[in-house]
Amino acid sequence: MKRHGRLLLALLLLLALAIPLALASGSQGVGERLLSGTLDPLTSRILFDLRLPRVIAAVAVGGLLALAGALLQLLLRNPLADPYILGISGGASSGALLAILAGVSGLWQAGGAFFGALCSILLVFTLSHGQGSWNTTRLLLTGVVLAAGWGALISLLLTLAPQGAVHGMLFWLMGDLSHARAPWAALAAVVLATLLITPLGRPLNLLARGETQATLLGVEVGPLRTLIYFLASLLTAMAVTLGGSIGFIGLVTPHLLRLAGVHDHRWLLPCSALLGALLLLAADTLARVAIAPQQLPVGVLTALLGVPLFLYLLARGGERG
After folding, report:
1. pLDDT tens digit string along 208-230?
2. 50-320 is a CATH 1.10.1130.10 domain
3. pTM metric for this prediction
4. Judging by beta carbons within 10 Å of its beta carbon (0-12, 13-18, 19+), is residue 16 exposed, middle or buried?
C-alpha cells in the first residue's frame, strides 16, 4: 500500500511539473517571460487563451480515456479492451461530422458528437441485452458490429462532404485538441468519476476474479456491471467530444500500471487517470513542438508511439508468462 501511495504521489508531482512545462513550450517561446512574471498582452493571450485551455483539455481527455480503459478492461475481463471498442467513438465521430456537414461548429459540433456517443451507448446496451440475459460476450460483439457500421457511415460522410470541409473532418477524426471547448467541465468530470468509482475498489477487485466468485462473496454483480458500463461509456463520450479520436491512451495506461505491480483497483483507477493525463499531455506538447510552427494531430502521435509501446508490453508479458 505504501508503494502504491508513493506511486500516486509521484504521478501527481510529475503532472504538476508537466503542466507549466507544456504552457511554456511552443513555437512562441514564453518561458522566460513566464518565469519573470512580466506578461505583455500578447504573451497573456498566448498563455491563457490558447495554451491553457489546450493543456487542461489534454489532462482531462487523457484522464477520461485511461479511466474508461481500466473500467472496460475490468468489465470485459479482456486486457485488449479500450474505450473505442464498443462503438462509442464511431457514434461520436458520426455526430460531429454530421454537424460539420450542416455548417455548424463550436458547441453545436460538440453537442453532435455527444449525442452520437449517447445514441451508440443506448444502442449497444439495448441490443446486447436483447431477449435474454446481459453478458460481456454479447456486449463486446454488439459493440464491434456497431463500430463497423459507424465506420461505414463515416466513410460515406467523407465521400459526400464538400472538398472544403474534408480537411477539417479528417483532422478531427485523427484527434485534435487545438479547438477543445469547455475543458474545465471535462476535468471536473474525470475528478468526480475517480472519486465516485475508487471507493468501490473492493467489489471491483472481486468482480475481476469472476462473476461467480463475486456473487458468492456478496457483490451485486448486475448493478455494478451496469454502473461500470455507463460510466466508462460516458467518460469516453466526453473525451471524444472534446478531443476527437485519440487512441492507445486507454489501452496502454492500465498495462503500464499493472507491469508496475498495481492490480488493486483502489489504486489502479486513480493512478490510471493521472498517468493517462500525463501521457496525453506529453504527447500533445510533442505534437505542438515537433515540427513547429506546424502542429501534428495528437491522435496520430499517440498511435505512432502507442503501437511499438504496446507491442513491447505484449512481448514483455509473453516473456514473463
Report:
1. 888 888 888 888 888 898 888 88
2. no
3. 0.87
4. exposed
